[in-house]
Give the backbone structure.
Amino acid sequence: YGTAFQAPAPRNLYGGWGGLTVSSNLEPDEIKTFDFSVIGSFKNSAHDLTFFYNKITKSILQGENLPDKEIYGFEYKHIFLLETIGKWAKNFRIHFNYTFTESKYKSPRFNETTLRLSDKVGGIAKHKFNVIMDADLFNSLHFNFRVNYVGKRPTIVSNPIEEIVDFLLVNAGVQCRNIFKHVKLFLSVNNLFNVDYYHPGYDSASAGEDLSRPSGGWYSS
């Protein structure tokens, strides 16, 4: 169990330039957190299951204290290891983690510009997982393979783009050892299948997505 608070930044209290909403009456935002974990290990594997609950009050977006919000769910982690696979492979490892998250405001938020009404906390995916696999082959090669998945995410109500679609990224790498004495060669490829993917915008994220039209704000959607 833990508690914390964060005072408003001076720019949110007293900033005086265009495009920034400020208020000298902002209150510090506060959080209460609860975590419960169960951990177990076996001959070739280890498991970690964590349940979490966060209650955040008076969180700050520019010059506004937002309604209370709750974020809760669980995360599962798994590690699997095989020291040898026949004569040609060893140190085969799989790391896997999955997170399920629910996140809601206690009362819905409304934005007059986008006309959106929602109780969803923006930018948080309900489902996420990561897989990492690697192994040593023939005493001279090391392979690494990584998969990252982020589910669809709602955005905050000031963002005219209501939802960011899910994406799956695949990254791979190989290391060649003992080419020459004390020399190794690395080759890595990120986003192996050239996937287009996006992230929720920054801050109020009100700038829209059509550059031919006037922007609704200063922050990228």
Q: What stands out?
A: The helical segments are 10-14. The two ends are 35 Å apart (CA to CA). The first strand starts at residue 2 and ends at 6.
